[in-house]
Amino acid sequence: MTKIGNIELGEFPLLLAPMEDVSDPPFRAVCKKNGADMMYTEFISSEGLIRDAAKSVQKLDIFEYERPIGIQLFGSDIDSMREAGIIADNAKPDLIDINYGCPVRQVACKGAGAALLQDIPKMVEMTSAIVKIATRPVTVKTRLGWDDNTKNVVEVAERLQDIGISALTIHGRTRSQLYKGDADWTLIGDIKNNSRITIPIFGNGDVDSPEKALAMKNRYGVDGIMIGRASIGYPWIFNEIKHFLKTGEHLPAPTIFDRVKVCKEHLDFSMRWKSNHAGIVEMRRHYTNYFKGLPNFKEHRLKLVTTYSYEEIITILDKVEKQYAEMEIVQGS
Length: 333
Prior knowledge:
The radius of gyration is 20 Å and the shape is globular. It has helices spanning 25-33, 46-50, 54-58, 78-90, 105-108, 120-133, 153-162, 186-192, 210-220, 237-247, 256-274, 276-290, 298-304, 310-332; strands spanning 3-4, 7-8, 14-16, 39-40, 44-45, 69-74, 95-100, 138-143, 167-171, 201-204, 224-227.
């Protein structure tokens, strides 16, 4: 049984990664329904939270059915992070997660996210400040290091465990790699097998199939896996991995009916949560992924990403369902 503090997550939990402009409540809802064991909010700016910025405050929205769920914070100022930690704690998540892994320039060049990998003492001080004020477990997500010459995640793991974090998720790339090249899980395995480390260690990076999940589990001994990009438009990956780990067999791939149904659910929730207009616009980033691999889908996609009419979107999705269902029948006969 994998536990973060007193939160029981099962034998080999699958975590949904916190992704900016992706991991909002509508997206989390379809992932939870399809097997995600633990989820996180989009990362939230500490400065935005303490200034009561509407976008940051809205990201605190969590729902009972999502539990267990963590609120993820990022920032460069220790006092601001402490204050934001108090606000996040009062929102009553199951845990608070600190982002020391985001590689994007807008975050890292302001001294937040993966930038803290260049200043381990400050990272330790910042984490300690949040651990001291939190009434629930504090966890961390980070990377292997800033670049190939400074892969210091072993030191990070030991020092952060010593000040009281309850779990650590490691993305198998450096900051300078961004999302390029292959994720290297070697150091993740070394940390999991380090006799000093007693907290759960979760691996992250490039797991996009049941076979890869099994390989990472067996090769590196991690306590669970965090899945990010592979879940966008494909929330079925969580249950597919679980079924494969349990039985060695593959679940049937989602049909066009499954894809359209979940896409509509996602859209409806997005409109309820954000407003009709914003929900429609935000959903545009997901259509390509929901219908990835369908031949000649471009014409439908262009219409989906340009219309502001909910009724027209539903008409297009119904047409997609009918057209590709007929193709599935022909291919299957």
